[in-house]
Design goal:
It contains eleven helices and nine strands. It is α/β, with parallel strands linked by helices and 314 residues long. InterPro entries: Asp/Orn_carbamoyltranf_P-bd (IPR006132), Asp/Orn_carbamoylTrfase (IPR006130), Asp/Orn_carbamoylTrfase_sf (IPR036901), Asp_carbamoyltransf (IPR002082), Asp_carbamoyltransf_Asp/Orn-bd (IPR006131).
């Protein structure tokens, strides 16, 4: 397996995109092409991470991110230690710091962390001294989701340059929206964030290449990709919405709304979907949908991220 390695300094962690320049981000997308080829082989395994131990430390539930990271690490021959907080001494009151200090004694070389608190992935790096990949921290960042979204759009249109991605839904509580708003403009795309005013934090308009609107038709007009986001009820403490039905009537991604997007526009969703709330079943399963493609690409992107962070490092 060969992978392009840009000459700029290599970040030690993937917590968000602050330390990542377009050159290195593009290299991750490019190398995911190679990883997809590996995944198409009869023997879907390469020795790149042989001898390394990777801990997936999930303090919050996950289906796609966790399974794809675990498979990605195994496909690259790493030993994988799975830590599920729900079945651990965290339920007996053990702190994040004590938990990570214990796990680090098993000679863990890198952590993949999901946590309900923003900034937890950064703390895991501090407590362990090991490279950390953020698999979603609170409402702050979910960088590998944004990378696989970017990859899926690039795969469809050949390039991200000049493309528009509209993201509709619960922007306020979404780490996926934040990470995409940080990443896509670095790669030449424009991002339109759309939702009811209560779920659309005005400060995001300050990000370069990002615009905000409460009007879904305006949001999707000229969009090449339209992403629907779930209402993150687990992060909502107040009354952000009149009712689910009212929300769906205005903001649901469906064929009627998609008629206002570019003719070849695709539909994305990071999952899990609440069908017929933020997305219609027709749009989720229709010809524009690339939702399962996102899942397939997620494994290749996560292999590429592991490669970039861990291979060839002392
Ligand atoms: N799976 C995504 C996340 O972990 C989106 C969601 O949960 O709605 O942020």
């Amino acid at each position: 397996m060969t992978a392009a390695t840009p000459k700029t300094a290599r970040p030690r962690n993937l917590l968000d995109f602050q330390d990542w320049n377009p050159e290195r981000l593009t290299a991750i997308l490019d190398n995911a092409d190679t990883m997809l080829q590996v995944l198409d082989r009869p023997v879907k395994k390469v020795p790149a991470l042989q001898g390394l131990t990777i801990c997936t430390a999930f303090f919050e539930n996950s289906t796609r991110t966790r399974t794809s990271f675990e498979l990605a690490a195994r496909r690259m021959s790493a030993d994988v230690m799975t830590f599920a907080a729900g079945a651990s001494s965290v339920s007996k009151g053990e702190s994040l710091r004590d938990t990570i200090e214990v796990l680090t004694q098993y000679k863990v070389d890198a952590y993949i962390v999901r946590h309900h608190a923003s900034g937890a992935a950064h703390l895991v790096h501090q407590y362990s001294g090991k490279p950390v990949i953020n698999a979603g921290d609170g409402r702050r960042a979910h960088p590998t989701q944004a990378l696989l979204d970017a990859y899926t759009v690039r795969q469809e249109f050949g390039s991200l340059e000049g493309k528009t991605v509209a993201i509709l839904g619960d922007i306020r509580h979404s780490r996926v929206a934040r990470s995409n708003a940080e990443l896509l403009p670095k790669l030449g795309a424009r991002v339109v964030l759309c939702g009811p005013a209560t779920l659309l934090p005005a400060d995001l308009a300050a990000l370069p290449g990002v615009t905000l609107t409460t009007d879904p038709v305006e949001a999707v007009r000229g969009a090449h990709a339209v992403m629907a986001l779930r209402l993150q009820q687990e992060r909502m403490s107040g009354g952000y919405l009149g009712s689910l039905q009212e929300y769906a009537d205005t903001y649901q991604v469906n064929e009627t709304l998609m008629a206002h997007a570019e003719s070849g526009a695709i539909v994305l969703h990071p999952g899990p979907m609440n069908r017929d709330v933020e997305i219609s079943t027709e749009a989720a399963d229709g010809p524009r949908s690339r939702i399962l493609k996102q899942v397939e690409n997620g494994q290749a992107i996560r292999m590429s991220v592991l490669y970039h962070l861990l291979v060839g490092r002392d």
